[in-house]
């Protein structure tokens, strides 16, 4: 799904947080939104999902105005994984993932829905906990279940808000590899808020770097993750390297601080 955001402004009561956002996110890409806390990343994702109504501007999804789309049509096309701490479900993992099929099925689930859920549970190695209560899982397990729910939706666009924040590094790689496979095999697009710059550098086709509610830089990871950009946007001195043709970022010191060695 191609996302075209034009002249987008958004305010919470008494506080403007997005200023004239103009960006095109291409079809079948992984786009990572990065930037300091409070720079507006989650707000952009919520505007794309139409959970928030902008003050001004337009969001076009495959050329159609998002504000004119019916909720059910949005739900068929867009899977959204909020920051997991926000959600509770007093039901089983299986039923939470099955909820992802709702937009496509009637009140009754079909055998196709059940098969899709089973496939996703196996893919994300969640089958052993399929009958456990969602609310009793660890934060990382809950995060994987919520990703499974969104993927069971077979969305054209997957919106993820810090999807790997509670995952160990093995599960971070697993989830990102599975998402990449979906992008390649099912032409899904992904917009993902992520704090881990190295994860973004490894998996993103495009990085959008925000500062104070404005887009500061957009491009390939190696174009955006420069010493200069990291110094300006994060106020951090960083060492930029490379591993397996992917840029790597090592934060060294807050700007203005001298690197402490030997301590
Ligand atoms: P990020 O995802 O980059 O951390 P957010 O989009 O969550 O940033 O927040 C952008 C700004 O909007 C921050 O200053 C935050 O405090 C403020 N904000 C976020 N949610 C709300 C809300 N519900 N009401 C008022 N202000 C909010």
From TrEMBL:
Domain ABC transporter, residue spans: 3-237
SMART domains: AAA
Keyword check for ATP-binding: yes
InterPro entries associated with the record: AAA+_ATPase, ABC_transporter-like_ATP-bd, ABC_transporter-like_CS, P-loop_NTPase
Pfam families reported in the protein's UniProt record: ABC_tran (PF00005)
Family matches, as PANTHER family: HEMIN IMPORT ATP-BINDING PROTEIN HMUV
Protein name (record): HmuV: hemin transport system, ATP-binding protein
Organism: Desulfobacula toluolica (strain DSM 7467 / Tol2)
Organism phylogeny: Bacteria, Pseudomonadati, Thermodesulfobacteriota, Desulfobacteria, Desulfobacterales
């Amino acid at each position: 799904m191609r996302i075209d955001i034009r002249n987008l402004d958004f305010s919470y009561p008494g506080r403007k947080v997005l200023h004239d956002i103009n960006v095109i996110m291409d079809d079948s890409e992984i786009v990572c939104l990065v930037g300091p806390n409070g720079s507006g990343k989650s707000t952009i994702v919520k505007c794309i999902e139409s959970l928030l109504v902008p003050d001004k501007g337009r969001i076009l999804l495959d050329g159609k105005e998002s504000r004119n789309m019916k909720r059910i049509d949005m739900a068929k096309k867009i899977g959204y994984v909020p920051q997991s701490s926000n959600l509770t479900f007093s039901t089983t993992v299986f039923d939470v993932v099955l909820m992802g099929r709702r937009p496509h099925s009637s009140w009754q689930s079909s055998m196709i829905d059940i098969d899709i859920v089973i496939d996703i549970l196996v893919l994300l190695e969640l089958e052993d906990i399929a009958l456990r209560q969602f609310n009793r899982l660890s934060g990382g397990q809950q995060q994987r279940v919520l990703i499974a729910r969104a993927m069971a939706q077979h969305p054209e666009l997957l919106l993820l808000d810090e999807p790997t924040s509670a995952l160990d590094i093995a599960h971070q790689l697993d989830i990102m590899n599975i998402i990449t496979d979906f992008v390649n095999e099912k032409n899904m697009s992904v917009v993902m808020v992520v704090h881990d710059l190295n994860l973004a550098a490894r998996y993103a086709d495009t990085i959008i770097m925000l500062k104070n509610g404005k887009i500061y830089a957009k491009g390939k990871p190696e174009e955006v993750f420069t010493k200069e950009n990291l110094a300006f946007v994060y106020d951090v001195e960083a060492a930029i390297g490379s591993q397996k043709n992917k840029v790597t970022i090592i934060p060294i010191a807050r700007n203005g601080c001298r690197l402490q060695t030997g301590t």
